[in-house]
Amino acid sequence: MESKRRKAKSEREGKHTPFDKREIKKIVEEIESGVPRREILSRYGMHESTLTNWMNRYGSKEYYAERSRQYSSSEKRTVLRAVASGMSVGEACVAFGIKCRTVVDRWVRQQKAENAELSRQTATVKKSEEKKPKEVSAGHLRELEEQLAEAQLKIRALETMIDIAEEQLKIDIRKKSGAKQSPK
Protein backbone atom coordinates (compact mmCIF):
# COMPACT_ATOMS: atom_id res chain seq x y z
CA MET A 1 0.00 0.00 0.00
CA GLU A 2 1.43 3.39 -0.98
CA SER A 3 1.43 6.36 1.34
CA LYS A 4 -0.76 9.34 0.57
CA ARG A 5 2.19 11.67 0.05
CA ARG A 6 4.22 11.16 -3.06
CA LYS A 7 7.77 10.07 -2.47
CA ALA A 8 9.47 11.80 -5.38
CA LYS A 9 13.22 11.56 -5.14
CA SER A 10 15.48 14.32 -6.31
CA GLU A 11 16.17 14.43 -10.02
CA ARG A 12 19.85 15.22 -9.52
CA GLU A 13 22.50 12.66 -10.38
CA GLY A 14 24.65 12.55 -7.26
CA LYS A 15 24.78 13.77 -3.70
CA HIS A 16 27.20 16.56 -4.55
CA THR A 17 25.35 17.77 -7.63
CA PRO A 18 23.56 21.09 -7.04
CA PHE A 19 19.78 21.24 -7.04
CA ASP A 20 17.94 22.82 -9.95
CA LYS A 21 16.24 26.18 -9.18
CA ARG A 22 12.83 24.76 -10.07
CA GLU A 23 13.40 21.87 -7.70
CA ILE A 24 14.46 24.24 -4.91
CA LYS A 25 11.28 26.29 -5.35
CA LYS A 26 9.20 23.09 -5.36
CA ILE A 27 10.81 21.99 -2.08
CA VAL A 28 10.20 25.41 -0.50
CA GLU A 29 6.55 25.27 -1.60
CA GLU A 30 6.20 21.81 -0.03
CA ILE A 31 7.54 23.10 3.29
CA GLU A 32 5.18 26.08 3.15
CA SER A 33 2.24 23.77 2.44
CA GLY A 34 2.95 21.85 5.65
CA VAL A 35 5.18 18.91 4.75
CA PRO A 36 7.45 18.22 7.76
CA ARG A 37 11.08 19.23 7.34
CA ARG A 38 12.33 15.81 8.41
CA GLU A 39 10.41 14.19 5.60
CA ILE A 40 11.84 16.63 3.05
CA LEU A 41 15.38 16.06 4.37
CA SER A 42 15.12 12.29 4.07
CA ARG A 43 13.29 12.37 0.74
CA TYR A 44 15.81 14.60 -1.02
CA GLY A 45 18.93 13.57 0.91
CA MET A 46 19.93 17.06 1.93
CA HIS A 47 21.33 18.72 5.02
CA GLU A 48 19.18 20.69 7.45
CA SER A 49 21.22 23.88 7.02
CA THR A 50 20.70 23.76 3.24
CA LEU A 51 16.95 23.66 3.72
CA THR A 52 17.10 26.49 6.27
CA ASN A 53 19.12 28.63 3.86
CA TRP A 54 16.63 27.98 1.06
CA MET A 55 13.71 28.86 3.30
CA ASN A 56 15.41 32.11 4.27
CA ARG A 57 16.22 32.96 0.66
CA TYR A 58 13.12 31.71 -1.19
CA GLY A 59 10.42 31.41 1.50
CA SER A 60 7.40 33.71 1.34
CA LYS A 61 6.93 36.54 3.82
CA GLU A 62 3.52 35.15 4.81
CA TYR A 63 5.15 31.88 5.86
CA TYR A 64 7.63 33.64 8.11
CA ALA A 65 5.04 36.07 9.48
CA GLU A 66 2.99 33.07 10.57
CA ARG A 67 5.97 31.19 12.01
CA SER A 68 7.72 33.93 13.98
CA ARG A 69 5.37 34.95 16.75
CA GLN A 70 6.61 37.27 19.47
CA TYR A 71 5.49 36.44 23.01
CA SER A 72 5.05 39.09 25.68
CA SER A 73 6.85 38.76 28.99
CA SER A 74 3.53 38.12 30.77
CA GLU A 75 2.77 35.23 28.38
CA LYS A 76 6.23 33.78 29.06
CA ARG A 77 5.75 34.12 32.83
CA THR A 78 2.36 32.39 32.64
CA VAL A 79 3.80 29.46 30.70
CA LEU A 80 6.81 29.21 33.03
CA ARG A 81 4.55 29.21 36.11
CA ALA A 82 2.49 26.41 34.60
CA VAL A 83 5.62 24.36 33.89
CA ALA A 84 6.97 25.06 37.39
CA SER A 85 3.68 23.91 38.93
CA GLY A 86 4.00 20.49 37.32
CA MET A 87 2.69 20.82 33.77
CA SER A 88 4.95 19.21 31.18
CA VAL A 89 6.48 21.34 28.42
CA GLY A 90 4.41 19.52 25.79
CA GLU A 91 1.19 20.09 27.73
CA ALA A 92 2.08 23.77 28.14
CA CYS A 93 2.61 24.10 24.39
CA VAL A 94 -0.82 22.63 23.69
CA ALA A 95 -2.55 24.63 26.45
CA PHE A 96 -1.05 27.98 25.44
CA GLY A 97 -1.00 27.46 21.66
CA ILE A 98 2.76 27.44 21.22
CA LYS A 99 3.75 25.53 18.09
CA CYS A 100 7.38 24.82 18.90
CA ARG A 101 8.39 22.97 22.07
CA THR A 102 11.94 24.29 21.87
CA VAL A 103 10.67 27.81 22.53
CA VAL A 104 9.39 26.79 25.97
CA ASP A 105 12.53 24.70 26.62
CA ARG A 106 14.64 27.79 25.91
CA TRP A 107 12.52 29.91 28.29
CA VAL A 108 12.95 27.31 31.05
CA ARG A 109 16.74 27.23 30.54
CA GLN A 110 16.91 31.03 30.59
CA GLN A 111 14.87 31.17 33.80
CA LYS A 112 17.10 28.59 35.48
CA ALA A 113 20.20 30.54 34.45
CA GLU A 114 18.73 33.81 35.76
CA ASN A 115 17.75 32.19 39.06
CA ALA A 116 21.23 30.72 39.44
CA GLU A 117 22.78 34.13 38.74
CA LEU A 118 20.48 35.81 41.26
CA SER A 119 21.29 33.27 43.95
CA ARG A 120 25.03 33.76 43.33
CA GLN A 121 24.63 37.54 43.59
CA THR A 122 22.60 37.23 46.79
CA ALA A 123 25.20 34.95 48.35
CA THR A 124 27.98 37.38 47.38
CA VAL A 125 26.11 40.33 48.90
CA LYS A 126 25.48 38.43 52.15
CA LYS A 127 29.15 37.45 52.42
CA SER A 128 30.31 41.02 51.80
CA GLU A 129 27.87 42.32 54.43
CA GLU A 130 29.23 39.87 57.00
CA LYS A 131 32.82 41.01 56.41
CA LYS A 132 32.16 44.76 56.77
CA PRO A 133 33.39 46.33 60.00
CA LYS A 134 30.85 48.09 62.20
CA GLU A 135 32.72 51.45 62.20
CA VAL A 136 30.72 54.53 61.27
CA SER A 137 32.38 57.79 60.31
CA ALA A 138 31.21 61.13 61.70
CA GLY A 139 29.94 62.24 58.26
CA HIS A 140 28.02 59.03 57.80
CA LEU A 141 26.57 59.32 61.31
CA ARG A 142 25.35 62.87 60.54
CA GLU A 143 23.74 61.64 57.31
CA LEU A 144 21.96 58.83 59.18
CA GLU A 145 20.70 61.28 61.81
CA GLU A 146 19.28 63.52 59.06
CA GLN A 147 17.54 60.55 57.45
CA LEU A 148 16.09 59.54 60.82
CA ALA A 149 14.77 63.08 61.42
CA GLU A 150 13.21 63.13 57.95
CA ALA A 151 11.58 59.73 58.53
CA GLN A 152 10.15 60.92 61.86
CA LEU A 153 8.67 63.99 60.13
CA LYS A 154 7.05 61.77 57.51
CA ILE A 155 5.59 59.54 60.23
CA ARG A 156 4.18 62.55 62.04
CA ALA A 157 2.66 63.88 58.78
CA LEU A 158 1.09 60.51 57.98
CA GLU A 159 -0.35 60.18 61.49
CA THR A 160 -1.86 63.65 61.13
CA MET A 161 -3.42 62.66 57.80
CA ILE A 162 -4.91 59.53 59.38
CA ASP A 163 -6.32 61.59 62.27
CA ILE A 164 -7.93 64.04 59.84
CA ALA A 165 -9.33 61.21 57.67
CA GLU A 166 -10.80 59.46 60.73
CA GLU A 167 -12.34 62.72 61.90
CA GLN A 168 -13.83 63.83 58.57
CA LEU A 169 -14.84 60.45 57.12
CA LYS A 170 -15.81 58.89 60.45
CA ILE A 171 -13.92 55.67 59.61
CA ASP A 172 -11.67 53.81 62.04
CA ILE A 173 -8.41 53.41 60.15
CA ARG A 174 -6.01 52.43 62.93
CA LYS A 175 -6.21 48.94 64.34
CA LYS A 176 -7.46 49.04 67.92
CA SER A 177 -5.55 47.00 70.49
CA GLY A 178 -7.22 43.70 71.22
CA ALA A 179 -9.33 43.87 68.05
CA LYS A 180 -10.24 40.52 66.58
CA GLN A 181 -9.81 39.74 62.89
CA SER A 182 -12.97 39.37 60.87
CA PRO A 183 -13.71 35.89 59.45
CA LYS A 184 -12.77 35.51 55.79
From TrEMBL:
Domain Insertion element IS150 protein InsJ-like helix-turn-helix: 75-110
Region Disordered, residue ranges: 1-21
Coiled-coil region: 134-168
InterPro entries (alphabetical): Homeodomain-like_sf (IPR009057), InsJ-like_HTH (IPR055247)
This protein's record includes keyword Iron-sulfur: no
Biased composition (Basic and acidic residues): 10-21
Domain of life of the organism encoding this protein: Bacteria
Record keywords, A-Z: Coiled coil
This protein's name: Insertion element IS150 protein InsJ-like helix-turn-helix domain-containing protein
Gene source species: Pararcticibacter amylolyticus
